[in-house]
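Worked example 3 (structure in, sequence out).
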């Protein structure tokens, strides 16, 4: 086989199927995928009116850039579509003090799934009565915090939890307080996928009370008979990143059936039905998520029809979107450090296939989703556009692990070089919130941009923050102050 000089791809070869053929414009910003304020100005990506090179210079890279207008706009879209229902922002997607305040100010509710998410929201001043606490293994401390703070609902998940909650609720009542309001988390036996759903009789997972075994009804009856608890309603959540509303509709059908059973068994008419989150977003231009308006219409229709069939009043609906509010408005900015062309073997017509491994200054510690879920992302060269021919690339991080991949297959201009900025789209949900200190990389900051202003809403973790946790290192200086800074080795936007 003839050797081929490493470098940009040219010549015919069969690209791996996941990359597809190169798009006509490698720098295009598909409006489904990129934040609402994303624009190219003289070739450079601007977010919230801010040029990315300026953001990178000021805040360093890796950097989460959150388009405030996009985040709050999507929250408002859900609130409008679900007018008359409660929209709980699922804070596990991304939570910090500022986000808690936006959600509070914009009138939404908040779903917390640990005592510490609850603590963050309360510390930010989020109204307790608009918070619901989830979790399959809530500790006594977490439950006590929820009871003392007077949160809206505890979403009970097990018989053990009811046993733990009752004495706390009784103590609150004895002190003159009201009963603790709870929802029963049900497992409806629907396994949701992106384009299909499979109803299963047996649910092999840790959340909720099974409808199929009758546990959900037993739990509901048990709660109704506890004077210190108030059963406000039922809860169901079928999964995440779901495009097809059929799964939600099937779940709604089943959980309304349980409302009917509860009514039959106890005479109680429950006031709330929370159908969870899971509404998918576009990570790639071809993804086709449903709009909040369509989801709301379909859920309302199914619930109304099922309730009519059972001669029950329609309960107040609630939903818990996380990704669909937080995901699309944030991008991660990285600086390219090294580029390594790797020969993949021979392609069509004898031309070798080459994949450029484009290494950036973050990786699986700030976005674990590609490695963990085989998630698909897209990215663009952000500090400039380029007319260079497309090169097949894989964007990887700097961790000591070959699975440290951010974008598995994509086309970038063949002249990308160290010092260029890459922007990975739709990283607002489950990236910062799932970030780690693997290889002692530090958690990136989050900068909110809006109307030409940038505000660091979460600062970059420093090495000294991490040293502070270590029995030996606490209080010691970092060996080099530079190691604590995201100091680019190459001027940002070298070719701009
Ligand atoms: N409500 C409940 C009870 C949930 O368990 C979840 C997500 C949500 C709402 C919000 O779902 P969303 O609207 O964001 O899809 N780490 C995974 C996602 C885990 C979701 C867990 N529960 C990921 O990165 O895809």
């Amino acid at each position: 086989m003839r050797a081929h000089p490493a470098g940009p791809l040219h010549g015919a070869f069969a690209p791996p199927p996941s990359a597809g053929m190169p798009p006509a414009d490698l720098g295009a910003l598909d409006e489904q995928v990129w934040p609402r304020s994303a624009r190219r100005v003289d070739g450079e990506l601007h977010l919230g009116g801010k040029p990315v090179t300026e953001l990178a210079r000021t805040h360093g890279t890796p950097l989460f850039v959150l388009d405030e207008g996009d985040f709050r706009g999507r929250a408002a879209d859900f609130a409008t579509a679900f007018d008359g229902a409660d929209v709980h922002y699922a804070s596990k997607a991304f939570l910090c003090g500022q986000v808690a305040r936006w959600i509070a100010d914009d009138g939404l509710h908040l779903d917390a799934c640990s005592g510490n998410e609850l603590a963050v929201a309360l510390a930010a001043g989020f109204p307790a009565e608009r918070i619901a606490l989830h979790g399959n293994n809530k500790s006594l401390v977490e439950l006590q915090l929820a009871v003392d703070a007077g949160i809206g609902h505890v979403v009970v998940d097990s018989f053990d939890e009811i046993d733990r909650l009752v004495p706390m609720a009784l103590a609150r009542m004895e002190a003159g307080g009201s009963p603790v309001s709870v929802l029963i988390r049900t497992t409806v036996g629907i396994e949701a996928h992106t384009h299909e759903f499979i109803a299963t009789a047996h649910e092999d997972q840790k959340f909720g009370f099974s409808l199929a075994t009758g546990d959900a009804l037993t739990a509901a009856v048990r709660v109704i008979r506890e004077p210190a608890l108030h059963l406000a309603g039922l809860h169901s959540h079928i999964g995440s990143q779901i495009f097809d509303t059929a799964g939600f509709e099937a779940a709604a059908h089943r959980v309304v059936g349980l409302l009917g059973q509860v009514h039959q068994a106890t005479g109680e008419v429950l006031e709330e039905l929370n159908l969870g989150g899971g509404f998918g977003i576009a990570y790639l231009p071809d993804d086709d998520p449903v709009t909040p308006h369509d989801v709301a219409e379909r859920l309302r229709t199914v619930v109304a029809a099922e309730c009519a069939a059972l001669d029950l009043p329609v309960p107040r609906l609630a939903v818990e979107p996380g990704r669909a509010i937080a995901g699309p408005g944030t991008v991660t900015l990285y600086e390219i450090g090294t580029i390594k062309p790797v020969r993949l073997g021979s392609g069509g017509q004898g031309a070798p296939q080459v994949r450029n491994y484009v290494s950036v200054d973050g990786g699986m510690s700030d976005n674990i989703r590609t490695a963990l879920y085989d998630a698909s992302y897209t990215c663009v060269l952000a500090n400039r556009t380029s007319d260079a021919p497309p090169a097949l690339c894989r964007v990887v991080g700097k961790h000591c692990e070959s699975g440290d991949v951010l974008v598995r297959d994509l086309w970038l201009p063949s002249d990308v070089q160290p010092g260029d900025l890459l922007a990975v789209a739709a990283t607002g949900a489950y990236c910062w919130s799932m970030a780690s200190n693997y290889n002692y990389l530090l958690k990136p900051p989050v900068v909110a941009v809006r109307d030409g202003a940038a505000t660091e809403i979460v600062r970059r973790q420093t090495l000294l923050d991490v040293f502070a946790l270590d029995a030996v290192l606490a209080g010691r200086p970092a060996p080099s102050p530079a190691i604590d800074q995201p100091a680019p080795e190459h001027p940002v936007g070298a070719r701009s």
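Notes: Residues 1-13, 194-202 have pLDDT under 50 and may be disordered. Residues 90, 92-93, 111, 134, 237, 240-241, 276-279, 320-324, 369, 373, 429-430 surround LLP (CB under 6 Å).
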